[in-house]
């Protein structure tokens, strides 16, 4: 900790990161142990974060990330979109199909950036803001596959056909190694099957986007 930084703010941010990394919340004692500070400090940090709706405590006293984080998260989408666009443009032009970046939004997959190819006679119309269940379509299935793998293996790609639109096929690969962001990069095309080279190309694009977001 340098003279130019705030110890209290640093601890508050560490609390949020710790809570974001758990699905079941943490007790004051657990947070105290992880932060290396006494329980009184943790109580003060939680009380301040609760005032801003960034933390909530359940009936059992376990602290969890609060809904206020979602309001902050909405402002992240434009930044993520801007970082992903170069890789998406390259992917769309290379494959000749609509490319998209999809992020998790609750139980849905939400397209936050879409790029259509400029040289094709026709392509699938796919718009930013389109959402669908995570277990439907290549974009969502790629995210679920990454969750199941838990980072224990090199991510591959997911192929689907006709799950979101009749006659359309999709390929997607998950974003890996980007803290706080869960998503995938993919393409959708009017075809009965995805050409063999598309899957590996989508994986490369997902890596490009992940690198841009780190």
From TrEMBL:
Residues 6-67 form the HTH iclR-type domain. SUPFAM superfamilies: GAF domain-like (SSF55781), Winged helix' DNA-binding domain (SSF46785). Gene3D superfamilies: 3.30.450.40, Winged helix-like DNA-binding domain superfamily/Winged helix DNA-binding domain (1.10.10.10). Residues 68-214 form the IclR-ED domain. PROSITE patterns: HTH_ICLR, ICLR_ED. The keyword Hydrolase does not apply. InterPro entries: ArsR-like_HTH, GAF-like_dom_sf, HTH_MetabolicPath_Reg, Tscrpt_reg_IclR_C, Tscrpt_reg_IclR_N, WH-like_DNA-bd_sf, WH_DNA-bd_sf. PANTHER family: HELIX-TURN-HELIX TRANSCRIPTIONAL REGULATOR, ICLR FAMILY, HTH-TYPE TRANSCRIPTIONAL REPRESSOR ALLR. This is Transcriptional regulator. It comes from Streptomyces xanthochromogenes.
